[in-house]
Amino acid sequence: MTLFRHTINKPLRSLSYKPSKQLSSKTIPPTYPIEEERNPHCNPNKYYPARIGETIGNKYCIISKLGWGANSTAWLAKDISRWPWQSTKYVTVKITNCGEGEKKAAEEELSISQHISGLRSEHEGRSYVRLVEDSFEVRGSILGDDHLCLVFKPLREPLWVLGRHLGSTNGVPPQVLKAFLRVILTGLNFLHSECRIIHTDLKADNFLIGFEDITIIDKYVRQQEAHPAPHVLRNGRPIYESRNDFGPLKKGVGMLKISDFSAAVFGDVLTPHNHDIQPQPFCAPEVLLKAGWSYSADVWNLGTVLWELLADETLFDGVCEHRRKYSKEVHVAQMIRLLGGPPPSRFLDKCDPCIRDGLFSAQGTFKFPGLIPSEEFNFSNMTPFLHGEDKRLFIGFVRRMLQWEPESRSSAKELYNDPWLCYEP
């Protein structure tokens, strides 16, 4: 699920929602699409018609909308089932869309989370993985179908937003990011080595920072209760504006969590996975060319997302200059230039013949040499945000991740002590 930008228990039986007293909020004139309506493939009837002030699951009172995705919305809620002497508890509730495909994906995410929770492990990386804390179902009022709800500990914001708090205009400062990368690599090592799970979607939005102080949420809740987010009514269904700004950092930074396991899979399978994963810019060669993929696809993914985190840039966009549209041929051409040549023949032998033969000759020569960028498209020129020894070590770091052959890439554990992560300019 994408939040903020471009955004365990056994499930309970279906619970028909009973709206509690609603908070008054401003209605937006219904003249233009907002929030999930901006998704061209949006089916509004599949979204649960949540209302601020409503209690769902018989225990969670909705406070505000945090964001939305193609298949769900996320809400900050208060656990009202706690005893008076217990401290206040806030949660994030992800309400998935109704529909067979959406519900199956949510059930798989819950299954992955339950698997991780059930492991007896003292691995440090366990602390850096965001897991489902509760789950239940609610009955929608429009289609009458069930919506699976997943409950998480609330987190502040994606890692890329941290740069703005620290005064950076392009991304997260390198020295700050290095510390978080070691956390990410520790969490990824835990997922790969002990959980035997491949995340498959390591984009910047899925590295979330926790709250540095509980008073941040308390202040935010008071603001939302005093001034609820405006909404628009579409055929009786409210659509609220997201409120995901928790204000400036108060002190320090909260713990990072690897989040969103909706596309995760188990890695120990009889045959390699070969279905499409990862956002296009972060797509590993073995995914792009259908050569079968495993844990190292996450390592490639992390290597490419570093440009998004450090500079809010895309390393491989795959965009054709003339048509201004994504092209697999252009994407592969960019890889060829940056990696210093076409993929080895032993890698091409594993690729889907239909895709491979459309791109390469029988001798392994790329069929579209005119699409290969000029020699200026290299690691040095693509890394203007670093300088000197810091830049040299960074390029060495990413070269360990960005390799044609999956088995040639370093593992998350091997990358943890890389010289770049230890270097202080």
From TrEMBL:
Listed GO CC annotations: cytoplasm; nucleus
GO MF annotations, alphabetized: ATP binding; protein serine/threonine kinase activity
InterPro entries (alphabetical): Kinase-like_dom_sf (IPR011009), Prot_kinase_dom (IPR000719), Ser/Thr_kinase_AS (IPR008271), SRPK (IPR051334)
Domain of life: Eukaryota
SMART domains hit by this protein: S_TKc (SM00220)
PROSITE patterns: PROTEIN_KINASE_DOM, PROTEIN_KINASE_ST
EC number(s) recorded for this UniProt protein: 2.7.11.1
SUPFAM superfamilies cross-referenced by the UniProt entry: Protein kinase-like (PK-like)
Single Gene Ontology BP annotation: regulation of mRNA processing
Swiss-Prot/TrEMBL keywords: ATP-binding, Kinase, Nucleotide-binding, Serine/threonine-protein kinase, Transferase
Residues covered by the Protein kinase domain: 60-421
Gene3D superfamilies to which the protein is assigned, alphabetical: Phosphorylase Kinase, domain 1, Transferase(Phosphotransferase) domain 1
Chemical reaction(s) catalysed: L-seryl-[protein] + ATP = O-phospho-L-seryl-[protein] + ADP + H(+); L-threonyl-[protein] + ATP = O-phospho-L-threonyl-[protein] + ADP + H(+)
Entries under PANTHER family matching the protein: PROTEIN KINASE DOMAIN-CONTAINING PROTEIN-RELATED (PTHR47634:SF9)
Protein's name in the database: non-specific serine/threonine protein kinase
Annotated organism of origin: Aspergillus kawachii (White koji mold)
